[in-house]
């Protein structure tokens, strides 16, 4: 069976979603961009052949959630705890991505799944150019994979890679992407998928930033 695809995400709510986009975004605009990013991400996931699709969600699902995607609530705790819990429910191999890379495509996800399934590979990691990572996957459950890894820092990806290798895992490195953490990231990411919902939402609100 192909690996399961997991998306870890936060429901788009003004004042709680993508707050680092403010300013120049208002809280409502930041939430609108967050919803567009989730929509693009889940669209790519829905069009990728895989062993199942799950969104690991903080908050309540909305009409942005397509059919065929299982909803699992995030556990309490830090991001490392939530990532570990997301994988703990998977019996076989699984690839997890976030909601901050709306430029992901079915082709990129299919390639990432294929790399995870490559002979001799135990895990995969997709780094971001800001020092974090956009994707992580395991062939089998790996308790302790996130222990001691500080999240949301400029060294998170590097430390996570060292942690995986320190556990004796052979790690396949995926394509490096840019994620949307700050408003300066929005236009470059949108340009990578100009026909996406995220790019369209950004274009519609750009006049308000003048």
Secondary-structure blueprint of this entry?
Elements: E1 4-10, H1 27-46, E2 53-58, E3 70-73, H2 79-88, E4 94-97, H3 106-116, E5 123-127, E6 133-138, H4 156-166, E7 171-173, H5 183-192, H6 197-205
Parallel strand pairs: 1-2, 1-4, 2-3, 5-7
Antiparallel strand pairs: 4-6, 5-6
Q: What this model shows, in words?
A:
The protein has helices spanning 27-46, 79-88, 106-116, 156-166, 183-192, 197-205, and strands spanning 4-10, 53-58, 70-73, 94-97, 123-127, 133-138, 171-173. By secondary structure, the chain is of the alpha/beta class. It has a seven-stranded mixed sheet, sandwiched between helices. The longest helix has 20 residues, at 27-46. The model has no long low-confidence stretch (mean pLDDT 96).
Main attributes?
Spore Coat Polysaccharide Biosynthesis Protein SpsA, Chain A; single chain; globular; 210 residues; alpha/beta; 7-stranded mixed beta sheet; 6 helices
In short:
The chain has 210 residues and is of the alpha/beta class. The protein has helices spanning 27-46, 79-88, 106-116, 156-166, 183-192, 197-205, and strands at residues 4-10, 53-58, 70-73, 94-97, 123-127, 133-138, 171-173.
As residue ranges, the low-confidence spans are: none
Please estimate the helix content: 25-40%
Q: How many angstroms does the end-to-end distance come to?
A: 50 Å
Structure class: alpha/beta
């Amino acid at each position: 069976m192909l690996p399961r695809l997991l998306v870890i995400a936060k429901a788009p709510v003004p004042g709680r979603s993508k707050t680092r986009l403010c300013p120049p975004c208002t809280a409502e605009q930041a939430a609108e961009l967050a919803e567009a990013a989730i929509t693009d991400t889940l669209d790519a996931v829905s069009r990728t052949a895989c062993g199942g699709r799950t969104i690991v969600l903080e908050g309540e699902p909305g009409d942005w959630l397509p059919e065929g995607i299982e909803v699992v609530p995030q556990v309490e705790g830090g991001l490392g705890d939530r990532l570990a819990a997301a994988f703990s429910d998977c019996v076989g191999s699984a690839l997890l991505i976030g909601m901050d890379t709306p430029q992901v495509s079915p082709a990129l996800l299919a390639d990432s799944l294929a790399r995870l399934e490559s002979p001799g590979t135990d895990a995969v990691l997709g780094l971001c150019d800001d020092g974090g990572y956009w994707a992580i996957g395991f062939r089998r459950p790996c308790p302790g994979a996130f222990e001691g890894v500080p999240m949301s820092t400029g060294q998170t990806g590097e430390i996570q890679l060292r942690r995986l290798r320190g556990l004796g895992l052979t790690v396949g490195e995926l394509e490096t992407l840019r994620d949307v953490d700050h408003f300066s990231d929005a236009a470059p990411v949108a340009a990578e998928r100009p026909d996406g919902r995220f790019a369209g939402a950004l274009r519609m609100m750009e006049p308000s930033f003048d």
